[in-house]
Amino acid sequence: MAVRQRKDGRWIVYYRDPEGIKKGVVNEYFGRGPEGKLKAIQRDSELGLKTRRPSKTGPKGQTLFDLSVLYMKYRGFKPRPLA
After folding, report:
1. Residue 48, Cβ neighbours under 10 Å: how many?
2. What b/e sequence results for 54-74 when a residue is b if at least 16 CB atoms lie within 10 Å of its CB, and e otherwise?
3. Is pTM, for the whole model, over 0.85?
4. pLDDT tens track of the chain, all 83 residues?
């Protein structure tokens, strides 16, 4: 899911196990230098985990605001002054 370089120069691919066998994050190390970077990028593309969850859309159905407007219309709401 992500390719990063550690402070010691090693390239790493880390991701969550899609099958759920391993808990937490899985780390795979690929060595140092340009060869390690190339191997890490290749492994990252092999995993194919770049998909994201669909973004949350607005609320489905009526909201509290919609219900309150309907209630005020039904009950004949007339605001009273505070003083």
Report:
1. 9
2. eeeeeeeeeeeeeeeeeeeee
3. no
4. 689 999 999 999 988 876 777 777 888 999 999 999 999 999 888 888 766 666 677 667 888 898 988 988 888 877 777 76
